[in-house]
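Message: Study each token:
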Amino acid sequence: MKRSILALLLGLALCAPVASQQVTNGSVTVNPYPQNAIPITGNSGNVANSLAFASIPAVAGKTSYICGFHFSSSGSTAAAIVLGGIGNIVGGGGTFVVTSVAGATLKNPDTIVTYTPCIPANAPNTAVTASVPALGAGNTNASIYCWGYQL
């Protein structure tokens, strides 16, 4: 029984992505990405009452992974509820609720999501997208930032 459990745990450990290590000035720095991964970020920049869109782009022969995103915005003239989305990932995608407070000079709550483990695109050479639609009249600031890697 003990050997079976040990074999199972060893098998799971061998399947898990391994973070690469780098020695810097005598100390070990752990890279949170798998060995040979290329870290990538995407950012919508500031948008006013418009679609905020960012992506981990497609690259021939590689798979894009999303590890998380951060959406930040100001309020709008009237309160609003919209659905943001993560697209082209294994499992089809994800939807999240974003609320906008009534008051163009007010700050909406940030939406910060981290995926552990990171989620791969549903196919190689496919961009992973993160987006939030327009929040309504009076919304002057919105931005979505995503991070991940390609392997």
